[in-house]
Amino acid sequence: MSGTPASAPALHGEQRFSVSVVGEVKTAGLYELEKGSTVLDAIVRANGFTEFASPSGLSILRLEGTRLVRILVDDDTETSAGVEPDTVLLRPGDMVVVP
Predict the structure, then answer these.
(1) What residues does 97 pair with on adjacent strands?
(2) What is the DSSP track for 33-74?
(3) How do the pLDDT tens digits run along the chain, 99 residues long?
(4) Which one of 34, 42, 70, 89 is most buried, by most CB atoms within 10 A?
(5) pTM of the full structure
């Protein structure tokens, strides 16, 4: 059916989810993203970095069970996984933090 509204729920599993984007982005807030979205996608939805942003310190806060986990993204330190923000897949409820 081509007349189905874009906001209609997916019939075969959840295809959209919400994440928060906070910190030095132009429009912080809660955003709905497509399944398979990355940190970079979330930042684009928040209208990009402010002039004060420090993109090399990006992180994701994720609740895993009862534990809050901080995932460093594209960080310069040796303790970071060194993952690029356009390859880290987001999960429902994630918070992208832009220092």
Answers:
(1) 22, 59
(2) EETT-BHHHHHHHTT-B-TT--GGG-EEEEEETTEEEEEE-S
(3) 444 444 444 444 569 999 999 999 999 999 999 999 999 999 999 999 999 999 888 999 999 999 999 998 865 555 445 566 666 899 999 999 999
(4) 42
(5) 0.77
Q: What would the two tokens of residue 7 be?
A: 């906001």
**For residue 94, what is the DSSP state?**
-
Alpha-carbon gap, residue 59 to 9, rounded angstroms? 29
Q: What angle do CA 78, 94, 24 make, to 5 degrees?
A: 70
Pairing of strands 67-72, 16-23: unpaired
Q: Which domains does the chain have, with CATH numbers?
A: 16-98 (3.10.560.10)
DSSP 25: B
- Give the sign of the dihedral formed by CA 80, CA 86, CA 92, CA 98: positive
